[in-house]
Amino acid sequence: MDTILFCPQKRYFNILTLAVNIVIVGAFTQSVFLPIMANDLFAKVSNPVINTNQASISIITEVSSEAELKNFDESVQKRYPNAIIYDIDKGIKHIKLTKYYDSRPVKINVVEVNPKLAKDYELFPALASDTLSSKKTISNIAKENNALIALNGTYFKPQTGVPLGTLMINEKIYTGPIYNRVAFGIFENGYDVARIQLNASIKTKDLTVKVDNINQPRMLSTYVLAYTPDWGRTAPMTPKYGLQFAVEDNKIVQISTSALQIPQNGFVIAGPSSSLSKFKLGDKVKLDISTIPEWKNVKHIISGGPYLVKNDEVFVDMTAQKLSAIGGKNPRSAIGYTLDNNLILVSVDGREGSSVGMTLMQLANFMKSIGCINAINLDGGGSTVMYVNGKVVNSPQVQGGIPLSNAVVLSKKT
Questions:
Q1: Structural domain harbouring 32
Q2: pLDDT (tens digit, 9 = 90+) per residue, 4-36?
């Protein structure tokens, strides 16, 4: 298809033809070639416009944007036949559809975002509060972050709200991985998916000790754990035959076998005495934190599990990620992306007659069918809730959704 030029008078011109004609005229008159902008085609000849590059870029950008919007509209219509499709904002669509599995209905909500069109929006995880031990409804989390779209995020401890698994917001790691579960990485210009391991250590000039996790419940008495002010005021109890030390401004200021208060400008390290007894009061220490794989320039990470789609293939590693307990047909939430970098957010209603839910394999096949080349499962069941443009759009078991630890939100850039 030829690229076209739009003029206020609703007339369309072929850009290539126009350019050739202007060059020919210039050649015959042996005059200096002064290209003209679209809006000046109907202006007087005595008022030429010389800023050619700016005009050309403006025209190409406008045409490119219109073509991208048309392609997006057509691709969404094709991917979701018989669905109800809402335009939420430029490049952001909300799709409602019902599928049938073994003659039983499943209600699905999808949000698809084209980043080339929705340039003013950014995706990031959002916590319910400044500290990890907190929960709020998704509507409250969304409103506090001026979010247009929100979907429940990673697993969390129901009693406290502490996220269970990797959570990074604005390059800051709040919680570390559990069972090296798969996580969704959000970069400035795209996404990635991988199983995440923590690579952390506490160091002095002559001593290095591995740190097994950050702001997570203790799973083994032999683990060395770090607790930051995001955890709360006080670190958890020390394990049997263990100790902990408080670090403020990179200096050990307190050592105890009891739970210590977490310094605002520091952290607490807790673990077995066999690992920590060589650290002394007054030692200068450094906490190094990174992940494996080392995602350079990653801004945000939100974990889930298991995989649903991996490298364009259906891949459900439920057992490997110790998630066998979430099998069966249930309400589901998922996040993924397409080959052309469109973001996909999905909520599936379940445990009711009008929508029986999905198995993980059914969800994986659905994510693949709508174009995801990588996708992961998020927390589901009673946590599944999707918020679009001011309201909850699915049917969670508790009206409005249960209080959540965190959500993944799409908000206008500030």
A1: 4-70
A2: 333 333 333 333 333 434 333 343 333 333 333
Q: Are the C-beta atoms of residues 177 and 196 closer than 8 Å to each other?
A: yes
pTM for the whole thing? 0.84
CB atoms inside a 10 Å sphere around CB 220? 11
Number of domains in the chain: 3
Establish if 377 belongs to a structural domain. yes
Quote the CA–CA distance of 237 and 260 in Å, as a whole number: 8
Q: What secondary structure, in 3-state letters, does 228-269 show?
A: CCCCCCECCCCCCCEEEEEEECCEEEEEECCCCECCCCEEEE
Give the span between the Cα atoms of 14 and 234, in whole angstroms.
69
In eight-state DSSP terms, residue 358 is B
Answer yes or no: do 61 and 93 share one domain.
no
Residues 6+ apart with CB under 8 A from 22: 33, 35, 36
- Tell me: do 63 and 139 sit in the same domain: no
How many whole angstroms separate alpha carbon 38 and alpha carbon 56?
Answer: 9
Residue 154 lies in a domain: yes
77 within a domain of the structure (yes/no)? no
42-60 confidence digits (pLDDT tens)? 333 334 444 555 555 555 5
Give the tokens for residue 348. 């599936």
In the block, tokens 């607790």 appear at 227
Q: Give, as one character, the DSSP assignment of residue 367.
A: H
Q: Count the neighbouring beta carbons within 10 Å of the beta carbon of residue 270.
A: 24
H helical segments located in 89-220: 138-144
**Cβ neighbours of residue 326 under 8 Å, at least 6 residues apart?**
318, 360, 377, 380, 381
Roughly how many angstroms between the first and final C-alpha of the chain, as a whole number?
A: 37
158 and 50 in one domain? Answer: no
